[in-house]
Request: fold
Amino acid sequence: MSNKIPLAGVIGSPIAHSRSPDLHGFWLKRYGIKGHYVHLDVAQSDLVEVLRTMPKMGFVGANVTIPHKESVLALADSVTDRAALIGAANTLIFRADGKIHADNTDGYGFVENLRANADWDPKAGPAAIFGAGGAARAVIASLVDVGVTEIRLSNRTRLRSNALKAEFGSKVTVFEWVHAGSMLEGAMTVVNTTSLGMVGKPEFKVPLDALSPKAVVTDLVYTPLRTAFLENAAKNGCQTVDGLGMLLHQAAPGFERWFGVRPEVDDETRQVLLSE
Reply:
């Protein structure tokens, strides 16, 4: 067995804002693991060289964020089916021979967050999704995987919604943004994947009148933790789930692969990211 202290980190640019080192640092300490997890600000022009060098420096893997989540797919030696389907990777594993394995755990984190924090049955009825960016792609892929048969999608730019429909097929129905509220009729899973409602961003203004009180509603935004979108859904009687849990759950598979322990996502873990 190697005596090297395992290293991991989060690659992006800019990256200083990322709370991932706080989260992984907490888990390393909790489980008594000698290892380190650091911020890695990497320019696009340096990405190839950095990825090829990291395994030689003792890195066992990395998380990847903006603007590199798509680029790393082309640089990886192997890619999981879910990362290929989503068209982006957020988790890299560096094998002992230096080869790079790319995965995407965003959809896993999304599903686990709902399972852990709501009485959620994905097969109870249609899902309605606001937004058609990379996060929406991961959400759609994961919902299809767990058996949702009808996905309603609306985005401010229809072109992006149409692109996702072309990719995921007949399970996806596109609604015009001006009629987005109507896709909530009978929807049992409702998801905001847009940045609307985030601190410093425009408000989420789509009317939620058609929401069923039986729906489970989640917002991928977690600053603020309780968005107006979630507050309005709660007033409708819906179960609501904030976006912080997705961030926590998507991190767990990578930590396990790099450091050999499956970390528990609990209230103490949440407090680590809520403490500042």
